[in-house]
Inverse folding.
């Protein structure tokens, strides 16, 4: 298990270096000269040249890269080109907002998806199974922003159960924090619930028809114990989907944060992209990749525990 863990850590570190390095060069290639977005179209060539010199953009690109990388490994992502505030400080303020919504959405998707997946796996021809199939078609056909707006209109404007916009930090009020992230979390979780439930239902049915399950029943094991064995063998695929969905929810948080006016990394990504604020974009890229690596690492550990054959591979 130790060798398995070390291999996963090493591959995660390599992925982090490769993705962040590629992102640096791709960002400079895609944005090019950011001074028009920072100064506006009315800026003179002399003003743009002065800003480029101030930002260090007049240096060779490789020099800029090594300078950024040497500071990034210490957690220093430079200063924003828009407000000249430390990028690390801005990300530190916004990460808890996005993580609150994404983690809540992931937990909601995992719990509800597990219950629905097991229920439909045990009774594949039941009403709940048909509802799940209908929901999978409807939810994937509807745009995420439309679902978010419908939730706002129904539960925030009409029923007034939750606030329509805004975020309350957990340190200020636990109750208000929970109310502020409920609708965004549900908006993110709906599609994930269907995917996890479908994956678990399919895996449950596949494992339920295998010979070892019939042997367990023939030995007189209770239905509950048989279900636990089936669930353990059917869970790896669902866990993989859950990890992928977590990464996808980080990207989907951009739309949700804009609709619900949440000051998270999604809205920061949008504002930085509009003006070509490369230090902020790179800092957000590093943080996102770190989350992806950690989630995949934890997934590998869980799968290695559930299925020892994974460790051998």
């Amino acid at each position: 298990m130790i060798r398995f863990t070390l291999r996963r850590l090493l591959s995660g570190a390599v992925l982090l270096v490769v993705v962040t390095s590629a992102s640096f060069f791709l960002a400079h290639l895609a944005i090019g000269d950011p001074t028009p977005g920072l100064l506006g179209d009315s800026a003179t060539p002399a003003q743009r040249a002065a800003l480029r010199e101030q930002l260090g953009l007049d240096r060779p690109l490789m020099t800029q890269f090594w300078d950024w990388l040497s500071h990034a490994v210490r957690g220093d992502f430079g200063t924003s080109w828009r407000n000249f505030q430390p990028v690390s400080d801005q990300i530190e303020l916004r990460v808890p907002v996005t993580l609150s919504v994404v983690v809540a959405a992931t937990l909601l998707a995992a719990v509800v998806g597990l219950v629905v997946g097991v229920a439909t796996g045990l009774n594949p021809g039941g009403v709940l199974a048909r509802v799940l199939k209908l929901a999978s078609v409807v939810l994937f056909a509807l745009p995420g922003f439309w679902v978010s707006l419908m939730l706002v209109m129904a539960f925030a404007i009409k029923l007034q159960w939750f606030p329509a916009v805004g975020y309350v930090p957990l340190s200020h009020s636990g109750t208000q924090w929970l109310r502020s992230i409920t609708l965004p979390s549900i908006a993110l979780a709906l599609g994930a619930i269907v995917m996890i439930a479908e994956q678990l239902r399919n895996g449950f049915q596949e494992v339920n028809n295998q010979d070892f399950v019939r042997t367990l029943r023939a030995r007189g094991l209770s239905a509950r114990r048989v279900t636990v064995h089936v669930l353990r063998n059917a869970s790896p695929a669902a866990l993989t989907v859950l990890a992928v969905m977590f990464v996808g929810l980080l990207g989907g948080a951009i739309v949700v944060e804009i609709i619900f006016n949440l000051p998270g990394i999604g809205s920061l990504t949008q504002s930085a992209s509009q003006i070509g604020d490369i230090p902020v974009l790179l800092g957000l890229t590093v943080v996102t990749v770190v989350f992806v690596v950690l989630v995949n690492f934890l997934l590998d550990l869980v799968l290695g525990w559930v299925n020892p054959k994974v460790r051998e591979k």
